[in-house]
Design goal:
Helices cover 25% and strands 28% of the residues. The protein has 3 helices and 6 strands; from the N terminus they run H-H-E-E-E-E-H-E-E. A hairpin with a 4-residue loop joins strand 3 and strand 4. The N and C termini lie far apart (85 Å).
């Protein structure tokens, strides 16, 4: 007796692991979703990069982002920060240390999408001028606004690129500075 094909009711080209017509293949769906999410992130990053480099204006950028269903840039996100740190200074035994001349600020130069004129800060600086090595201890608190895509982005930027400005300190010893950054963000109403 002849051999019978037990799969004769299956359309040609289908294998046993394929989903039935009308059923979703979860593997393809999750892979496609991940690929789409990556494409959206890449597109958003590209468009925001063009905005950062002055190739697109804010309105044009937001129009393109909306067209592709991406989060728009709305100003501002306020970043509140505290920089706490210390640095060693050289102190000659016959030098008088003018404690009022020692100031510390915040270096915002590396931050992206900073809203011009939005930065404010206060600093508390204590100088311990023992010869030959003194110590400067400081706390800088302040805030600035950015037009980042979301508060998480703004906080990551602050933790990565916000530094103390020690340029007004005299006699800073190389590689002796230490600081930490604490941040909190708030989304502000469009102005």
């Amino acid at each position: 007796m002849g051999h019978t094909d037990q799969h004769h009711d299956r359309p040609a080209g289908r294998t046993g692991g394929d989903p039935e017509p009308g059923q979703r293949d979860e593997r393809c769906s999750s892979t496609a979703r991940a690929a789409l999410d990556q494409l959206r992130a890449d597109l958003s990053g590209h468009l925001v990069g063009r905005f950062r480099h002055g190739e697109l204006g804010r309105d044009e950028l937001n129009q393109l982002l909306r067209r592709f269903g991406l989060a728009t840039l709305h100003a501002p996100i306020r970043v509140h920060y505290t920089l706490t740190g210390r640095v060693e200074i050289d102190v000659a035994s016959d030098d008088g240390v003018d404690r009022d001349a020692f100031t510390v600020g915040a270096d915002l130069a590396e931050l992206d999408l900073l809203v011009e004129g939005s930065a404010r800060h206060d600093a508390r600086v204590t100088v311990y001028p023992s010869a030959p090595v003194g110590l400067v201890v400081y706390t800088v608190t302040g805030h600035y606004d950015v037009t980042g895509p979301d508060p998480g982005y703004a906080a990551t930027e602050a933790r990565s690129y916000l530094y103390p400005d020690l340029s007004h300190l005299v006699g800073v010893r190389e590689d002796t500075d230490w600081f930490q950054v604490d941040v909190r963000t708030e989304v502000r109403a469009d102005g």
